[in-house]
Amino acid sequence: MVHSSASASVSDQVIKSEMPLRIALLVLPASIDLNAASLDSHEIAKQLSVLMPELYRSKLLETTELVSIKVDDFEANLTATIESIEQGKLVQISTPTSSLLMMHALKAAQNRIHPHAQLAAMQIQAELDSAASVTACMADACMESALSQAKRKPDSVSKRFDLPELNSTEQFDAVCKLIQDLASRTHHRDTQSIGPKQATSHYWFTDHHQARVVAINLTNSVNGQSCISFVVSQGTGFIAPKSIIDTKRLQLVVSADNQAGLIDALGTLKAQLALTTQGSSLLKLMRDNLLAFEATSGKYAITLQAGSVEAMLQELDAMAETVSKIMAESGQALSQQYRTPAGSYFTAEPLGSSAQNGLAFVYPGVGTVYSDMFSELHGYFPSLFSQLEREGDLKSMFQADAIYNLDPKVAPAMPLGDLAIAGVGSSYLLTQLLVKEFNITPNFALGYSMGEASMWASLGVWKEPHTLIEKTKTDPLFTSAISGKLTAVRKAWQLDNSDADIVWNSFVVRSPAAPINALLPEFPHAYLAIVQGDTCVIAGCENQCRALLAQMKKRGIAANRVTAMHTAPAMEEHGNVELFYNQPLQESLPTDIKFISAASGDTHVSNTQGGLDSQVVANSIADTFCNTLDFTALVHSAQKQGAKLFVELGADRQNCTLIDKIAKQDRQCGGESTDFPCCTVPVNAKGGDDITTLLKALGQLISHRVPLTTQPLIDGLNREIALSQLQSQLQKAASTTQCNSEQMPNLTLQGEV
């Protein structure tokens, strides 16, 4: 191993190269000094096995010469780095806050290392003229040379960054930050262009099959003009996922077969936590707690969540005081569960266990998506986003140009087809997250309105659901038949081209269905579209809808959205809806999920005779699409078939709110589903923190004993522990070095200053 400051000057004013560099870049934790003689090499290897498993498994650090460069003169440092890499060496180049490991891309590939990024070009130019106008010309010329070296056209660059007047340390830190953004696929917004409630960053979307490429210009005017231009492209590796739980987002779980066991476990946990500080020991406590939980199978489970050790101790006390009361009142629908604002949760009647088989995935309809939704998730589940990007056009799937538009008013004003695409996309993402990351499989699935299409797309039924994206944007069914010009409605109302445009609207009204149905004959162009608990939705000619509301002496909340779904005129398009959704199915279909039709309440299961086929699915969607949606009846049907725990898979939590109201109405009015247990679990909530809401949902599922894995939580904690231990080791080494330095005799000779 070799240490070097690489402070030699650059001999030429202009560095030219015609061949791409092909250098693999790995972002290292700033605390890792791979060449530090004062550190225990065994400990470094131990932490690397967790933080960078591919590098650890490759044994490259044991078999290849490593050059360590501390940034002092960035131009010279980079030149020395490239020379060392060309000689087959590894190079760690770093500042106190940033660190990169660099090697030839071929070496990385041979050792099965997926780099975070690839350095394809570096060009350096210098001029003696310090005029400001020369700087811009030089930067463009330097970048042109870099793109030529990288064999890339200017339009292949995703983003260009011009960073002027930074010192060497600042230059390196800025470049490292951009490489981290590439590796984490994160787009940062200009904070001056967004409002206080908008996300400061989100997933970095690109066109399908389009790689992310960054062009960077570093310019300086000290002692003349100089410019360094880089072309860096995304690698096949990702920054390690952020830990879902950490020292600021705590989670602990206790499990037992009876009340006494739960109370004992809470007491033990409190004693352990009281002795724990905010460092590695707290992370280990949470990790070991989850490992112990994974190994147990108690009948009951309590999930505890808090933002600090002090708050967690309070959660423990509150839960200990409440457990006996909840257990004593088991069987009473309003008292069988306990939750705190922080997310701690306990139920005395688990509804999601294998014995209950009561887990239902519920898919919301059009209009639940919102501006900046899911802006944080990619940092915690990078592999999932990568998989979705490989499968199809993720940018289109989320309608990213609208959802993440700097103007938050754009998303709510999306056309019907775009809303439908983004709605299915959000449901698909959350389904894959629960199914593939946490190994959760539902017993039932149902959808609200177009949520039925989301259900078939998300749960492994359709073979190529992504092909529907472009069709939804362009098919007349969505652009003009039941939205836009409403051609289906004009046909049903027997209007011709000379008749005026239809003024259509829909209204949510607090009323049972019966009074509305009684008045509909007087208003032939108004329709009962949706029945949902204690409210209904009427739609049609705006004037007739308002007149109907006035006669009922009711106020309606206008949706101000043009869609004729669930009204009689939509039946004109029944055949087209069938044709649109008649999609090829997967060869291997899920056999353990009961799919419930919103139109009939019928259940479709792929392992039964006459079960799932393309036509069955298409008919089910068309029937739901073209008839009044009775969501209340759908929920009751699901409950009668055994659904008890309803998990909403989609943006926001509107279906959970509706199901809660339906269950409350049943209890108050002695409805037909009074005796059926019912609990809802939102996975997302508008206005909430993505990960906090997800963690609360997982906490509920754990307490309801839903079969799942907590491995993503454990993996994140292991990385946090490794990083914490490495930082502690470095601090200890630095302290020892300082102590040894202070104990050395003063050897300064007389006359020295």
From TrEMBL:
Q: Which residues form the Malonyl-CoA:ACP transacylase (MAT) domain?
A: 362-688
* GO MF annotation terms: transferase activity
Gene3D superfamilies, sorted: 3.30.70.3290, Malonyl-Coenzyme A Acyl Carrier Protein, domain 2
Under SUPFAM superfamilies, the record lists: FabD/lysophospholipase-like
Q: Which NCBIfam families match?
A: pfaB_fam
Question: What is the protein name for this chain?
Answer: PfaB family protein
